[in-house]
Fold these 2 entries.
Entry 1:
Amino acid sequence: MSGTLIIAHPVRSAALRVGPVRIAIVGKGGAGKSVISGTAARLLARRGGKVLALDSDPMPGLAISLGLGPLTEPFLEGAAEQSDDGRWRLRKGIGAARAVQRFAKVGPDGVRLLQFGKATPEGLGPIMGSLNAFFQVTHRLATTGVLREWNVVGDLPAGPRQAAFDWAPYADTFLVVVEPTWKSILSARRIARIATSRAGTVALFVANKVHGSSDVKLIEDRLGTAAFGAVPADPAVIEADRRGAAVIDETPACPAVTAIARLVDQLMRA
């Protein structure tokens, strides 16, 4: 029912899901969304199928976690034009499939990244064309035949704003990343309720940066539901961030990557 928070519990079925994985990853600022998004996208690609990573966060993050390094340029600048009334639109002949083909960056494991660019000293003004093109492309993904079988992983910025304003229409599942702190837990609950206000979507809570089962229990008790999965606090993630590298490349067998791999396996069985 629209407006109802729908929480899915850990999946135990061995049957693979029908159709691609289409998720948007949300949460409080600093919760670890980009690391989980980038690592999950890489792992999905390694399991077969095509993967499109969507970065709608105006701050840096997903490109680094994918192993592409810091990318700031507006990818879709050439895909947009302004009409006489000042409104932005996709150029004639450019739909979602062509936008992905022409403007996405191909990263490690064949993951394609599409982003609208990063905030400049002048704010979002210089990338408004790319931003508007990105929004329109995401809204055409579900109806574009050649992209229907692609796995899609979206990294949304902190807070509920983009979820509330339909920046992730491609997602049937929101992964809500939550740390074992009151601020993060309260934010996660509110973001999940807003994200699932669109009919047909579910929210799965992912406990992140936990130091053991007691942290997971604290999160679950305060949320009032089971966590879909848990990712441990891992120094390897911090070290990779210091280097500006993807943790899956720097330390592929570390506890965080191993835990995210379990999440991906569960998503493929959801």
Note: Residues 111 and 119 are 23 Å apart (CA to CA).
Entry 2:
Amino acid sequence: MKTILVVDDERNIVDLLRLYLEKEGFAVLAAYDGDEALALQRRHEPALVVLDLMLRKVDGFEVCREIRRRGDTPVLMLTARSDDIDAIVGLELGADDYVTKPFNPRALVARVKAILRRTDVTRRGGRPIEVGTLLVDPRRREALVGERRLELRAREFDLLAALARDPGVVLTRDALLEDVWGTDFSGETRTVDVHVAEVRKKLADDGPAIETVRGVGYRLVPPPREPLPPGARTTATEGPNST
């Protein structure tokens, strides 16, 4: 049974989420301010944190920053503001997803499940991926350019891994949202743009480029193939009876 920590100073929201999450088989811990949230997260190491931004004592931004400093526990942020600047800031701090209040509790539970599925797949890992000077290791959640380790937030790593799995292939913003965030962010594709900009900065000039395909999406540009030495193509295609 996975444990979800729900952090909100509105008790009716905590009670509502507890009801729906427990119905789906999750154990639920509740915190009503930032200090309590950080204490429970450290003590119980929940599988995921549902975190309201507007908290007493320590706000949700600071709580998210501290959780991310401690490790890679997934964070689903709640925001009451219609302006998405808070959500974008939250994502930049390392949150995995966000939901705007008022929300459909069934939809929120679906997002919790999607994040946990994605986290489980990533932690099981896979073979390292090489694209030119870039090495992405899903099992270790580590990305290197040459010998330089990239300091990537959780979603930045997932985004880079998604692009690296298909170098040269254009991935639409919607496809990246589905692959990386696991849900349809209708009208929120700028989330991808923000993360791509951060990953580009960290790849710098010695890593492969992320190319923008206007009106479509992004692709990771693979290194050019080295030309075959003279005669190599002929030798490879000639059969034993060639003259």
Note: The first helix runs from residue 11 to 23.
